[in-house]
Design goal:
The complex is a heterodimer of chains A (359) and B (289).
Chain A lengths: L1 H8 L11 H30 L4 H5 L2 H5 L1 H10 L6 H13 L13 H36 L4 H15 L2 H15 L23 H7 L3 H38 L2 H8 L4 H38 L5 H10 L3 H29 L1 H5 L2
Helix pairs in contact in A: 2-15, 7-8, 7-11, 7-13, 7-14, 8-11, 9-11, 9-13, 10-11, 11-13, 12-13, 13-14, 13-15, 14-15
Chain B lengths: L2 E11 L4 E11 L3 E5 L6 H8 L8 E8 L10 E2 L5 H7 L4 E4 L3 H4 L6 H13 L3 H14 L5 H5 L8 H13 L5 E5 L7 H16 L4 E6 L2 H7 L2 E6 L2 E7 H6 L4 H8 L10 H16 L4
Parallel strand pairs in B: 3-8, 3-9, 6-7, 7-8
Antiparallel strand pairs in B: 1-2, 1-4, 4-5, 9-10
The chains are: A mainly alpha (359), B alpha/beta (289).
């Protein structure tokens, strides 16, 4: 019986086994994301070329830039003498082969540079998002349950403070206090100088160190993570706490929560199985947004903590007008946004049967 | 006949005013007691007070006494001001509740099976398999078709009437002695309403269950209630067996409600009723407040 209703609901599947509604939902989301990636390439390409500033002047010395022969040779080498449209399609063609060009600052293929920088950024970004989700959900739920009481007001002040303090300022202050004054936190970078990089598996030093069984390397890497992750976390925790409070308050008003309490379920079950499950979809949406703002936050934080990630690379590429580098970073960050959105969309389907089972 | 639930002198107050202002009500064991009144009359809050589920801004005083299952178990349980433990053992286990709109009272993201079994397992300590087979039997009892398959489906995959049957099955899971039904048919189509009311009647006639049926719909009352209490502005206006209330209402407000029913045979003109009603309202205002 169930197969027949499914077949009725999915007119597009011809004969044979009807595709599961969720698979079709997922497929549609993936295809949309791929289209958007093309859009991102176009936007990064156009924006980069609109930047006032001559890559020739930035890359060549002043003497060389005055020599027309060198300049025209430089323009020919990097394809800058071609029309923009041709440049874009050349760029797309190379992109499909995994070629993002050669950075004019590091003289390495941009792909290699990004591959090296990405794990460093992922390590602080993932650390920060996991920490902020855990803390934000706990604090937001407490604030909602204690609405109007003293703890709610305290949490409001704390989360607003977290939201309002500028990230770069906080990074500088924490670095000064914990490193220069208290000597609790280690200095900049991902590892202290007397440690060697653990064998690369994931590129995340903490994970790789654990996989290699190097506990002291893990502890050192974790201690280096502490301050950058803390700085990034404070902002998103503030955001999430405020938002989770609102979402949970809305769910607490739902009949199904009253019904769950009327069933005599313990508070723990009501909170986790009913309230937070109900609030999970709006929370998930804002976690996706928070991850986006966190990625942009990494640029300043990485610069301050000399963290060799995407943010530092972007800063360096931008200050040298390194067009392939800038486009590479722009594309990578755009793709990461899209990926996060795709994951969020797919999780909607996992969390909500109405999305998953609708045809 | 003893009473399954006895409410006496119940007051429900917010900080500034009274929602329910001292009402008495006895729910006869094995009966359906209708609690009627317009919105804002305090009938829903009375039902919520039984389970200690009033909104945080309201406090209850007076007495709500739940009779014990047999006289050997002592005099019963006082629910007003009861501890969290006492209420936790009563809610869902001995007093259960069905809400107005089954499309909001069932969790949209949890399967029917999960919502039928989680309190079964909590209250009765059943294993997963035992709870599931009991849940299946419950769905059959409330006549949800294809009960086994229904367990792994979600609320949105059922019609409104089926959903309310599921909500009733959830309420009945732990064999409660008292069922509080808050407007259980108001959100349903008229044709579906009759089926749900008939189900409630059957459940009571099977024995062991008493229902406090909260509704503004006197048509529903006349169909299933054994006794009817009419509330207005937090006070009981009239309380009587069904036959008596529908044939010889004592109070002007009750008469005005009955006159509003389609096909009513009351002779008084609307003007006379309003006049009487205004005088009656003066009495109410001058009363317990």
């Amino acid at each position: 019986m169930s197969t027949s209703t499914k077949a009725v609901r999915s007119p597009r599947s011809r004969g044979g086994r009807a595709a599961h509604p969720f698979l079709r939902y997922a497929l549609r989301r993936v295809l949309t994301s791929l289209l958007l990636v093309v859009g991102v390439t176009l936007v990064t390409f156009v924006l980069t070329n609109l930047v006032p500033g001559d890559p020739v002047a930035a890359a060549l010395g002043q003497r060389a830039a005055e020599d027309p022969a060198i300049v025209s040779q430089f323009r020919a080498t990097y394809g800058l003498d071609q029309p923009l449209v041709v440049q874009y399609f050349t760029y797309l063609g190379n992109l499909l082969q995994g070629d993002l060009g050669v950075s004019t600052t590091t003289h390495n293929p941009v792909v290699d540079d990004l591959a090296k920088a990405l794990p460093a950024t992922l390590e602080i970004a993932l650390g920060a998002i996991v920490l902020s989700v855990v803390i934000g959900v706990v604090l937001g739920t407490i604030a909602a349950y204690r609405r109007g009481k003293a703890s709610d007001h305290v949490l409001r002040v704390v989360s607003l403070a977290g939201l309002s303090v500028p990230t770069f300022w906080l990074a500088l202050v924490l670095y000064y206090v914990f490193y220069f004054q208290l000597h609790i936190a280690p200095g900049s970078g991902r590892l202290s100088s007397d440690f060697t990089t653990p064998p690369t598996v994931t590129g995340l030093y903490t994970v790789d160190a654990l996989l290699a069984g190097q506990l002291d390397t893990f502890l050192d890497a974790a201690s280096h993570l502490f301050l950058p992750v803390l700085v990034l976390t404070l902002y998103t925790v503030g955001l999430l706490t405020r938002f989770v409070r609102t979402a949970v308050l809305e769910i607490l008003d739902q009949d199904y929560v009253r019904a769950a309490r009327a069933k005599g379920l313990p508070t723990r079950t009501v909170v986790f199985s009913y309230v937070l499950r109900g609030a999970s979809i709006p929370i998930l949406t804002v976690v996706g947004l928070a991850f986006g703002s966190l990625l942009s936050g990494t640029v300043l934080v990485e610069a301050i903590f000399a963290w060799p990630g995407i943010g530092s690379y972007a800063y360096q590429a931008a200050s040298h007008l390194d067009l392939p580098g800038i486009m590479g970073v722009g594309l990578l960050i755009g793709v990461m946004y899209l990926l996060v959105n795709l994951i969020v969309d797919l999780l909607y389907g996992v969390l909500d049967p109405r999305v998953r089972l609708a045809s | 006949m003893t009473d399954a639930l006895t409410i006496s002198g119940l007051r429900i107050r917010t900080r500034t005013h009274a929602i329910v202002d001292g009402i008495d009500l006895a729910l006869t064991r094995g009966g359906i007691h209708g609690l009627a009144g317009e919105s804002g009359s305090g009938k829903t809050m009375t039902a919520l007070a039984v389970l200690g589920l009033l909104p945080g801004s309201m406090t209850a005083s007076g007495s709500i006494r739940l009779a014990s299952d047999s006289p050997a178990d002592g005099p019963g349980i006082e629910l007003v001001g009861a501890s969290r433990q006492v209420l936790g053992a009563v809610r869902g286990r001995r007093v259960a509740m069905v809400f107005q709109d089954p499309s909001t009272s069932l969790h949209p993201q949890l399967t029917v099976g999960r919502q039928l079994t989680d309190h079964l397992r909590h209250h009765l300590g059943l294993s997963k398999a035992a709870a599931r087979s009991k849940a299946e039997a419950l769905l059959e009892r409330v006549r949800v078709p294809d009960a086994r398959a229904a367990l792994s489906r979600y609320p949105h995959q059922f019609s409104g009437g089926q959903r309310q049957r599921i909500a009733i099955a959830v309420a009945l899971a732990c064999d409660p002695t008292v069922l509080l039904a808050d407007e259980p048919t108001t959100a349903l189509d008229v044709t579906v309403q009759a089926g749900v009311l008939q189900l409630l009647r059957e459940l009571v006639d099977d024995g062991g269950l008493s229902i406090l049926l909260v509704t503004h719909d006197l048509g529903v009352m006349s169909a299933v209630a054994d006794e009817v209490t009419v509330m207005r502005q937090g006070l009981v206006v009239e309380s009587a067996p069904r036959e008596q209330l529908f044939t010889a209402p004592q109070n002007a407000y009750t008469r005005s409600l009955l006159a509003a029913l389609p096909g009513s045979s009351f002779e008084e003109s609307p003007e006379e009723l309003v006049e009487e009603l205004v005088e009656g309202a003066d009495d109410v205002e001058g009363g317990a407040r």
